Amino acid sequence: MSIISVLNPKGGSGKTTISTNLARSLHEMGYSVLIVDSDPQGSARDWHAACEDNPIELVALDRPNNVKTLTSMAANYDYVVIDGAAKLEDMIAACIKVSDFVLIPVQPSPYDIWAASDLVDFIKARQEVTDGSPRAGFVVSRVVEGTRLGSDVRTALDDYALPVCETTITQRQVYPQTASEGLTVFDADNAKARAETTALSNEILAVLATATREVA
């Protein structure tokens, strides 16, 4: 079982959208997946409740002590995807400690880049005492097609010395439209959205596979 946390202390960075679509992508690949809503605002819970036939299981763990039990509680799943809370340092720290990979979504905005600073410090401090775990990387989200902002933000993120996913998540109406019905892009007729979500999933899986080989 591997735990993937989608974290950014700044609200509005696309955490829930990426978490739910990432989880569904892994499900479509044939893996057993659990979504954990760690945000007291409950956005992932609202999404899950909007569709009675949602194929992804979800639990709410909105206290740090509950998150610490996740490794044993979710041992029967292939992957756990944590939808991270905003601004709650104790919760974010708890998620980092149980994670195998931390995905940090950032919009092409200087405010999002600056807001990630403390999170990166948390992750690097954890990596120093755990021989490099969790692995972590940025994904640039809500990129407007045809603009240079996506490439500009990649350059700005270089200072953090964490990888940036090759895949970007584009600003598409299909994301909020499907979310409002408790669905994902895999329930919609939008090949580009499905392709970019699948590509992001494959990048994360490749990193996790490399980490497993290094430990072995």
TrEMBL record:
Molecular function per GO? hydrolase activity
Q: Which NCBIfam families match?
A: ParA_partition (NF041546)
- What is the protein name given in its UniProt record? Sporulation initiation inhibitor protein Soj
E.C. numbers: 3.6.-.-
Q: Which residue spans adopt a coiled-coil conformation according to this UniProt entry? A: none
Q: Where is the CobQ/CobB/MinD/ParA nucleotide binding domain?
A: 4-184
Gene name tied to this protein: soj
Q: Which UniProt keywords apply?
A: Hydrolase, Plasmid
Which Pfam family is an annotated match for this chain, by its short name? CbiA
Tell me the domain of life.
Bacteria
- PANTHER family cross-referenced by the UniProt entry: COBQ_COBB_MIND_PARA NUCLEOTIDE BINDING DOMAIN-CONTAINING PROTEIN, P-LOOP CONTAINING NUCLEOSIDE TRIPHOSPHATE HYDROLASE
CDD domains for the chain: ParAB_family
SUPFAM superfamilies from the UniProt entry: P-loop containing nucleoside triphosphate hydrolases
Q: Is Lipid metabolism among the key words of this record?
A: no
Which species is this record about?
Answer: Roseovarius mucosus
